[in-house]
Design brief:
The structure holds two protein chains of two kinds. By secondary structure, chain A is an alpha+beta fold. Helix content of chain A is 27%, strand content 20%. Chain A is elongated, with a radius of gyration of 20 Å. Chain B has a single domain, classed as Up-down Bundle (Butyryl-CoA Dehydrogenase, subunit A, domain 3). Classes of the chains: A alpha+beta, B mainly alpha.
């Protein structure tokens, strides 16, 4: 086999692989990239003007006057800032979630659900056990298309969620979702036994994880 | 391919994407080996290219910029997620060598497996030189290594691939 034959073989081995993402979606994502780049400057300005006595659970709007309440998620503005977490709806429909502290999961869950996202949030180490929150069988690529992780920020594309699927955001991977016996995912190491459930656990930032679950009234609202 | 540069009209992003997306995806796939991840990284790299289009459109090799950005993003992602808990779905995991099927039906599993056995730097050189068709000088510039090193990596990669693939390819040609 000469060099040309080998080069041809290598090229032909991937010749059928074609990009499938529409350019409009790339541009939409590019806008989100631009928005992300602006965030540090905006955050810096907000921090400079912020009162040091701001309570952990106090909500203030980001760039908008007024105060939104966790108890009234449907009334939250396009961008709601909480010291523990931030939820911002982007113009392209994506939802940006920044989690700084594992506090007030019910508020975060209500805020995300108010944005139309079927989701369950738990910072207690366990979701409701039983069939209410069943892991959704999916490839990691699908989860990647639904959620992008950028440091402590999670960008969710609700339109990429398959029909009947929802998201679970929880802490302590391996404890947050019911796991069949014989499978105990452990931080920092591969499971000692062969895994027997679909891949769904990913560490977000430290102990935080996100997975896909079957949407249901009991699980994802 | 139309590159923009001094004295030329800025390259249109949509045109660039249509022209370069397939090649960039193949190059990233050869670099990292996983199609889903490669698609995700290439999408992200093109999104970043759009966000910085005035600068990227004047880059001497925008395709190489995209591939390099995608590969770097993959490395950064891996670093962030080192503690990720992989829980593969056994029902969907198959050994391509056992089944003889191409991964996702699009790539040649024998050649891809041979590529994945190459050292990372050799794969990157193969991706840029053979898939993206960059010359040695540009490849060296993109990877930040000397042109001689590029040639050495490519020579070793070709030798290794030939050693791995020759019996199978010759058997195919006889049959």
């Amino acid at each position: 086999m000469n060099d040309n034959e080998l080069i041809t073989a290598v090229r032909e081995s991937v010749a059928d692989v074609r990009a499938a993402t529409p350019v409009a979606k790339i541009i939409s994502r590019g806008r989100a990239v631009r928005a992300r780049r602006r965030i540090p400057a905006v955050a810096g300005a907000l921090a400079a003007g912020a009162c040091t006595g701001l309570a952990v659970t106090t909500l203030v709007s980001a760039g908008h006057p007024g105060v939104a309440s966790v108890n009234h998620p449907s009334s939250h503005p396009a961008s709601v800032r909480l010291t523990a977490w931030t939820v911002a709806r982007q113009a392209n429909g994506n939802i940006d979630v920044t989690i700084r502290q594992l506090k007030n999961p019910a508020g975060l869950q209500a805020t995300l659900r108010a944005d139309g996202l079927p989701v369950t949030v738990s910072f207690s180490g366990r979701l409701n056990p039983g069939p209410a929150c069943r892991p959704y069988s999916t490839a990691l690529g699908m989860l990647n298309s639904v959620s992008q992780i950028h440091g402590d920020r999670l960008v969710i594309d609700p339109s990429a969620l398959p029909s009947g699927a929802g998201l679970a955001i929880f802490d302590e991977p391996g404890k947050g979702l019911p796991v069949p016996s014989g499978t105990t995912p452990t931080l920092g190491a591969k499971p000692a036994t062969p895994p027997s459930i679909p891949r769904l656990l990913r560490v977000l930032n430290g102990p935080l994880a996100i997975g896909m679950v079957y949407a249901s009234q009991q699980c994802t609202g | 391919m139309r590159w923009s540069g001094v004295g030329t009209q800025p390259l249109d992003f949509a045109e660039f994407y249509r022209d370069a997306a397939d090649e960039c995806l193949r190059a990233v796939l050869v670099s990292i080996g996983d199609q889903d991840t490669a698609r995700e990284l290439v999408d992200e790299a093109f999104a970043r290219a759009w966000a910085s289009w005035p600068a990227v459109s004047r880059h001497p090799a925008p395709k190489a910029w995209v591939v390099r950005t995608a590969v770097n993003a993959g490395i950064s992602r891996w670093r962030r997620r080192r503690r990720e808990v992989p829980v593969p779905d056994l029902a969907t995991v198959t050994d391509p060598r056992a089944t003889g099927e191409a991964s996702a039906g699009l790539v040649d599993p024998r050649i891809m497996a041979a590529l994945m056995r190459l050292p990372v730097r050799q794969r990157q050189v193969v991706a840029l030189r053979l898939i993206l068709d960059l010359d040695t000088a540009r490849t060296a510039d993109v990877l930040g290594i000397a042109p001689g090193t590029v040639m050495a990596h490519l020579g070793r990669a070709m030798a290794a691939l030939r050693h791995e693939l020759q019996p199978e390819l010759e058997q195919e040609s006889r049959s």
